[in-house]
Amino acid sequence: IFLYGPDGFRLKEKLKGLKTRFINEVDKSGFNLTELEANKMSINDLSKAIGTQSFLASKRMLVVRDLFKARKALQTEVFEYFKEKDLRDKQDDTVVIVVDEKPDKRSGLYKYLSGGKFSQEFGVFDLRGLVQ
């Protein structure tokens, strides 16, 4: 799942809803929910988090935050890893959510993630659209 765009409030609310639903429906303990900050992780951390088996639940959830703020080398490694593992539209034991308010729309990683069926952009909210 790729959640992105400059509307940080709606983006965070969507993520909060996904996490709440996961905890309520899949893993009431919350043991299978992992969050990684991209600027503090390595490709090994990501690989380990994705490859870890769920504990007393049918699925795991991994949230990767601010991937496009991380160094370019890591972005390239993640892009290659996602392509190799074919993670974009795959139904798997681990639900991977990439969340970023300012993705680099020119990068291959962005094109790969945004091209998936589980991609949602949160553009700037325009109040003029509410007035009829």
Write up what this structure looks like.
The protein has 4 helices and 5 strands; from the N terminus they run E-H-E-H-E-H-E-H-E. It has 132 residues and is an alpha/beta fold. Strand 3 (60-65), helix 3 (72-85) and strand 4 (94-100) form a beta-alpha-beta unit. The termini are far apart. The model has no long low-confidence stretch (mean pLDDT 89).
How many individual helices? 4
Order of helices and strands: EHEHEHEHE
- What class do helices, strands and sheet pairing give? alpha/beta
Unreliable stretches (pLDDT < 50, length at least 5) are none
Rg (CA only): 15 Å
- Bin the strand percentage: 15-25%
Question: Distance between the terminal alpha carbons, to the nearest Å?
Answer: 33 Å
- State the strand order across the main sheet: 2-3-4-1-5
Any key phrases for this structure?
132 residues, alpha/beta, 5-stranded parallel beta sheet, 4 helices, 5 strands, 36% helix, 18% strand, globular
List the helices and strands and how they pair.
Layout lengths: L1 E3 L3 H18 L7 E5 L5 H9 L8 E6 L6 H14 L8 E7 L7 H7 L4 E3 L11
Parallel strand pairs: 1-4, 1-5, 2-3, 3-4
Question: What is this structure, in a nutshell?
Answer:
By secondary structure, the chain is of the alpha/beta class. It is built from four helices and five strands, in the order βαβαβαβαβ. The longest helix is centred in the N-terminal third of the chain and has 18 residues, at 8-25.
